[in-house]
Design brief:
The protein has seven helices and nine strands, in the order αβββαβααβββαβαβα. With 199 residues, it is an alpha+beta fold. The chain has a single domain, classed as Aminopeptidase (3-Layer(aba) Sandwich). Strands 4-5-6-7-8-3-9 form a seven-stranded mixed sheet, with helices on both faces. It has a two-stranded antiparallel sheet with strand order 1-2. Its EC number is 2.3.2.6. This is Leucyl/phenylalanyl-tRNA--protein transferase.
Length: 199
Amino acid sequence: MDKLTADDLIYGYINGIFPMADTDGTLYWYAPDPRAVIPIDIYKPAKSLRPVLNRNQFEIRINTAFTDVMRACSSPRSEDDSVWISDEIIDAYTELHQMGLAHSVETYIDDCLVGGLYGVSLGAAFFGESMFHHTSNASKVAFHYLIEILRQQQYTLLDTQFINDNVRRYGAIEIPKADYLKQLKAALRKKARFTEPVL
């Protein structure tokens, strides 16, 4: 296969598939069944997060350090952690970001990037890809603001691909692939704009 491009990513997402790299950089496309999604309307911040939000501990920025967020997400969390975000993936998603279809939500302390997440936006669907934190609660706050954006702009689908303990804490559930594809098709027919939330 030729080098991954933004057009490849768009084609993949609208057909319910997404790429991940193996340890040697080889790309594979995935379409999990069941699929993990986070119902946008039922998310509630954990009680422990509310004081953090009230203190305004973090400065939130949107789309100011997209590639930096991706590179931070690509770092292994532990010695046993496998890395699936290759340089080729970073280049393709950065191209998608430049087209206005991939976005980052970033958290800062004293002008230093300490957490964030990134994903892809098509129609009224947002495909969450990965998140990172260097400071406690930094990625949780980024996710909270992501939900604010999705709610205010009337997104209908938040895809989180695979179920794991990290996404479960945000309310992720598994649905059959066929149901996911129906929701995806409906979301792609709608228009939504990824923009700064009104707080």
